[in-house]
């Protein structure tokens, strides 16, 4: 049984290495596929817009959310690629926030030579989860918010603006976190925690903002409330699963904090 479990663990680890390599090399193709997906979705949504497109201005208002939706991950990838270049030796933050546990520091070269270094193993699952969060949130946005423009009721315009801001901002931040994790950037753990906090705050702020709009139909308000509540729950579940791992994992501490478990004397 032990031999079987060891073999299974080794097989899963090899698959995680392959997944990370595919993600790193395939990012340009992923971005091309993303643009194609958003263009197709935007065209379909615009064709079935719920408010009339009677001028160039109304057409621009209708397609702008989809332009922003498509551009956010690409802009985030470009920025993160500049800030966290592949293979760079990055300096640790001056202030250490994760203080739980007994650790000893290692220099950057020793850390990179260690077999536990890198975003593989369980970290590969977190990488994939962050990347998948972008299309999942985008699909929720596309399904929940129809295309509209200035001819729509005020409450509809407010919902569209709020939801567009949320999905564009969070897609941008989660993409930055993904690239930071993939490039072994020391800032990754705190960036992800900050993004989680902003995600929850955004959902709560939208609930208050949209709920206060005059003329909002009760059925629409209830549907929005359910969607925002679901988003908060998903972020909380992610935090409960991954925050302990980010604090206690030997791999995370070696890869992103350049420290390993202190040997007890």
Overview of this structure, please?
Helix 1 (2-47) packs parallel to helix 4. This protein has helices spanning 2-47, 56-83, 108-113, 122-144, 154-182, 188-211, 218-248, 250-257; strands spanning 103-105, 259-261. The chain is elongated, with a radius of gyration of 21 Å. The protein has one domain. It has 265 residues and is mainly alpha-helical. Helices cover 74% and strands 2% of the residues.
Give the CA-CA distance, first to last residue: 33 Å
Give the CA-based shape.
Answer: elongated
Largest sheet: 2 strands, antiparallel
Q: Sketch the topology as an H/E string, one letter per element.
A: HHEHHHHHHE
- Overall mean confidence score, pLDDT: 87
Low-confidence segments, ≥5 residues, pLDDT <50? none
**How many domains?**
1
Strand element count? 2
How does the helix and strand content classify structurally? Answer: mainly alpha
Alpha carbon gyration radius: 21 Å
Strand content: under 5%
Total helical elements: 8
Helix proportion range = over 70%
Task: Output the keywords.
mainly alpha, single chain, elongated
What is this entry, summarized?
This protein is 74% helix and 2% strand. By secondary structure, the chain is an all-alpha fold.
Explain the layout of strands and helices.
Layout: H1 2-47, H2 56-83, E1 103-105, H3 108-113, H4 122-144, H5 154-182, H6 188-211, H7 218-248, H8 250-257, E2 259-261
Antiparallel strand pairs: 1-2
Helix pairs in contact: 1-2, 1-4, 2-5, 4-5, 5-6, 6-7
């Amino acid at each position: 049984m032990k031999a079987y479990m060891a073999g299974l663990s080794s097989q899963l680890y090899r698959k995680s290495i392959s997944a990370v390599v595919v993600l790193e090399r395939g990012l340009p193709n992923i971005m091309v596929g993303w643009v194609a997906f958003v263009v197709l979705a935007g065209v379909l949504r615009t064709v079935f817009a719920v408010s009339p497109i009677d001028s160039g201005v109304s057409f621009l208002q209708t397609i702008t959310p989809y332009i922003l939706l498509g551009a956010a991950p690409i802009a985030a990838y470009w920025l993160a690629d500049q800030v966290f270049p592949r293979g760079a030796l990055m300096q640790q933050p001056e202030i250490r926030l994760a203080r739980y546990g007994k650790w000893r520091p290692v220099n950057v070269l020793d850390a990179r030579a260690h077999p536990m270094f890198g975003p593989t193993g369980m970290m590969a699952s977190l990488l994939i989860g962050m990347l998948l969060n972008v299309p999942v949130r985008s699909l929720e946005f596309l399904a929940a918010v129809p295309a509209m423009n200035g001819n729509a009721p005020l409450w509809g315009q407010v919902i569209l603006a709020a939801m567009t801001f949320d999905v564009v901002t969070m897609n941008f931040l989660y993409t930055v976190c993904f690239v930071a994790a993939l490039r072994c950037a020391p800032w990754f753990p705190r960036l992800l925690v900050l993004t989680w906090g902003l995600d929850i705050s955004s959902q709560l702020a939208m609930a208050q903002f949209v709920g206060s709009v005059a003329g909002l139909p009760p059925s629409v308000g209830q549907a929005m409330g359910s969607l925002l509540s679901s988003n908060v729950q998903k972020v909380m579940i992610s935090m409960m699963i991954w925050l302990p791992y980010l604090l206690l994992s030997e791999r995370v501490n070696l890869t992103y904090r350049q420290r390993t478990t202190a040997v007890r004397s």
